[in-house]
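During the second half of the funding period, the structural biology subgroup turned its attention to how the target accommodates small molecules. The most pressing case was coenzyme A, which had performed well in the primary screen but for which no bound structure existed. We therefore specified the complex as follows and requested a full 3D prediction, including the ligand pose.
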Amino acid sequence: METQQQFQILIANETHLDFAQIICDEMLSSAKARGTGIAKRSPEYIQQKMREGKAVIAFNQDGIWAGFCYIETWSHGEYVANSGLIVAPAFRKGGLAKAIKKKIFELSRKLYPESKIFGLTTGLAVMKINSELGYEPVTYSELTQDDAFWAGCKSCVNYEILMSKERKNCMCTAMLYDPKDHYEPEETKQFFEEKKGILERLLRIKQWKFLQPFLKKDKEDNSTKMVQASKRRSLLQYFFNL
Ligand SMILES: CC(C)(COP(=O)(O)OP(=O)(O)OC[C@H]1O[C@@H](n2cnc3c(N)ncnc32)[C@H](O)[C@@H]1OP(=O)(O)O)[C@@H](O)C(=O)NCCC(=O)NCCS
């Protein structure tokens, strides 16, 4: 399928297995560059998604890999997550993420018509894309409570924050599309446009507020436990580039 951005956006299959490594590498380096957390994925996991037909992959007209996203199911299929969205840096800001998210959303609706579709993100771009598809922001209590899903956050740098909030909140904003009870995309899009200034400020406040206990802790036992200290330093590095 050819889009207006001259990208091919395909449902991934066996022929794409060799791209799993570059996809994982880009996910990790993009998270580091943004200074945000990420649930790490292995190339084998990405390959499994390709084999199952539960991923979308994009290439430019010369066959260069350009983007990716995949589907996960939780709570015995009650929930579907569209995860691991990544666009290669050279192809950003051209509407590719939007096109990939649309394709994976359509695939999710086709494979799991009854499931609630959700995503977690720290980024305004993804919040905007989700809003255009009809997702609305929700509290974490409306997401799957499947332990296996939350276990995926263990590899994220913010996991300590998630657990200190008893899994009720963290740096990410949760968004959900419920096929049985949802606003129309025009409504969620309008909501986002009206509130995006506030949402952006809230994302910043959230980061500042959630980090306070960790900063205090850092001051209090400054000189103790080298292992803990190095852990905190990496947390600080992630958020304040120290
Ligand atoms: C986030 C990401 C997927 C966006 O990809 P992209 O192809 O550049 O996004 P698009 O061009 O489709 O942009 C979609 C919308 O978001 C906006 N946008 C894109 N990047 C943005 C940013 N950094 N900040 C705010 N808005 C942004 C675009 O302007 C566009 O809005 P428009 O419709 O008004 O033009 C890409 O930057 C990326 O891969 N980042 C690293 C991984 C990541 O953050 N993944 C998301 C995990 S939840």
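Two results from this model are relevant to the next phase. The domain at 8-240 is CATH 3.40.630.30 (Aminopeptidase). The radius of gyration is 18 Å.
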